[in-house]
Every structure is written in structure tokens, then in C-alpha cells.
Amino acid sequence: MNKMNFNSKKETADKKERQGADDATKLQDEQVNAAEENATSDNVTDEGPEQKELEELKKKYDELNDSHLRLMAEFDNYRKRTLREKSELIKNGGESALTHLLPVVDDFERALQNIRSAEDIKAVTEGVELIYSKFMSYLSHQNVKPIETVGEPFDAETSEAVAMIPAPEPDMKGKVLDCVQTGYTLNDKVIRHAKVVVGE
Q1: What is the rounded distance in angstroms from the CA atom of residue 164 to the CA atom of residue 157?
Q2: Which of 71, 79, 148, 195 could be bridged to 180 by S-S, CB 3.0 to 4.6 A?
């Protein structure tokens, strides 16, 4: 009887021990599953903002790339237009100047016709002087000015000495006595040097 009670108690203890082990294993499995679920949940949560940020960056990149391509196209069009305008300016730049010279040519033609049949030399001279005055006025409006040389000290920057002769007076040494060919400046830049005679 005692032996049976002992065996029964032992079986009960073993059963409780197995039950406890099973409960512990079950609890451990539940904890592992919970940890995995939390990890999965964290990964999903982390991937959401990263994916959104990646999409935003891609959108910004596309916008910047599109803007860059537009600017490149606009610059290329501007460059082509500038080259075309520059080419036209070089080709037709003298059009305005020549157009304003045509009235002077007309005056010369009329003067030549009158010279052939004119008997009054004084009238012809006055006509030529008027044409000359008109032409010089046109040059002045184009900022073309004659270089004043006679009586001035010789300046190699604006003049070219073609001859040197004895000065009629001591104070005329090194000064321009005569101008063989008038020099001109355009916007204060020498476009033709004056050819002068200098006293020595």
C-alpha cells in the first residue's frame, strides 16, 4: 500500500514537472513570437518613412533635372540668337552710316552737273563748300573728329612726321608747321594719323 502511494505521488510529481516544463516552453515560445512580431512591426514602421523620403528625393531630382535641361536649352537658343545677331551686325553694320552718306553723294552729283555748265566760279565754290560742311557735320554726329595739329607740339601718338624743315621762329622748333593729310579720331581713338611737317 505504501509502495503504491509512493508511486502515485511520484507520478503526480513527474506529471506536474512535465506540465511546468511544457508551460515554461510555451511561455518561452510566446515570448519569442512576440519579439519577432515586434521586430517585424518595427521594420515595417522603419521602412515606411525611408520609402517616403526616397520617393521625395527622387521627385526633387526629377524636378531639378528637368529645370537643368530647360536652362541648357534656353542658353543654347540664346547663344545661337546672339551669334546670328552678331553676324547680321557685322554684315549690315555699315547700313546706317552709308544711308546717311547718300544725300552727300546726291549733292556731289548735282555739283558736278552744275560745274560743267557753270559760268560763275564763285557759286560753284560756295556749293562745294556747302557739301564739305554738310559732310563734316555728318562725321561729327558719328563722333569722328579731325585732329588739330598745326601750331601744336608734335605728338607721335596722333601724328606721323613726313618731313622736317627749319623752323621759321625759335619757338616753332618741335612743333607742327603744316598738315599734309588730316588725321581723325573716332570716339577719341585715332583711326588715321595726321601726316605733318615738323619744324627743327
Answers
A1: 17
A2: 195
- The C-alpha atoms of residue 46 and residue 61 are separated, in whole angstroms, by 23
Compute the distance between CA of residue 182 and CA of residue 132 in angstroms, rounded to an integer.
14
pTM: 0.52
Query: How confident is the model over 78-123, as pLDDT tens digits?
Result: 999 999 888 887 777 677 778 888 988 898 888 888 887 777 888 8
What is the C-alpha to C-alpha distance for residues 64 and 71, in angstroms, rounded to an integer? 10
CB 175 within 8 A of CB 183: no
Fold of 64-141: Hemagglutinin Ectodomain; Chain B (3.90.20)
| ∠ Cα 28 31 33 (to 5°) | 110
| Cross-strand pairs, 196 | 161, 179
According to CATH, the topology of domain 144-199 is Nucleotide Exchange Factor Grpe; Chain A, domain 2 (2.30.22)
What are the tens digits of pLDDT across the range 140-184?
A: 988 999 999 999 999 999 999 999 999 888 889 999 999 999 999
